[in-house]
């Protein structure tokens, strides 16, 4: 059973929503569609556990800078989920990636959402409000900041930070 703590519109039928589902709190950034006079979620979007949401919020400054300078920037949020800006882009892409068999580079999947400038600005504006509905965010320490990641081996063995190669260490 899910329990929605908050649902805030970003514009264009896109919402950020904090939900309890299967004893885990997640922050969804998703597009919704109108069916039978009722808004329902679509597959276009991404669901982030709290530690990934916190990393996204921590990276707003770097994402803003990349958007202003119209340059490439990519931030790993964990588990092959990235927040990225492409060269000369005005949009923020939140997307799951994967490593195809026998390949060395991860590639984006369809699972995610590309936020337009006004939607991204609204997302940044409501990030602090989400903390009011999800006080658990205050106690979250994102994986890269944890004490076992203070050396390279801790990072390399982590399934969240190094999901495709952690078994090699």
TrEMBL record:
A Pfam family matched in the record: PC4
Classification via InterPro entries: PC4_C, ssDNA-bd_transcriptional_reg, Sub1/Tcp4-like
Sorted UniProt keywords: DNA-binding, Nucleus, Transcription, Transcription regulation
Keyword Nucleus recorded: yes
Subcellular location: Nucleus
Gene3D superfamilies from the UniProt entry: Transcriptional Coactivator Pc4, Chain A
Family named by the database record: Belongs to the transcriptional coactivator PC4 family.
Top-rank taxon: Eukaryota
Record-annotated Transcriptional coactivator p15 (PC4) C-terminal domain positions: 9-58
Entry-linked PANTHER family: RNA POLYMERASE II TRANSCRIPTIONAL COACTIVATOR (PTHR13215)
Name this protein carries in UniProt: Transcriptional coactivator p15 (PC4) C-terminal domain-containing protein
Species: Mytilus galloprovincialis (Mediterranean mussel)
Coiled coil: none
Record-level GO BP terms: positive regulation of transcription initiation by RNA polymerase II
One function term, GO molecular function aspect: transcription coactivator activity
GO cellular component: nucleus
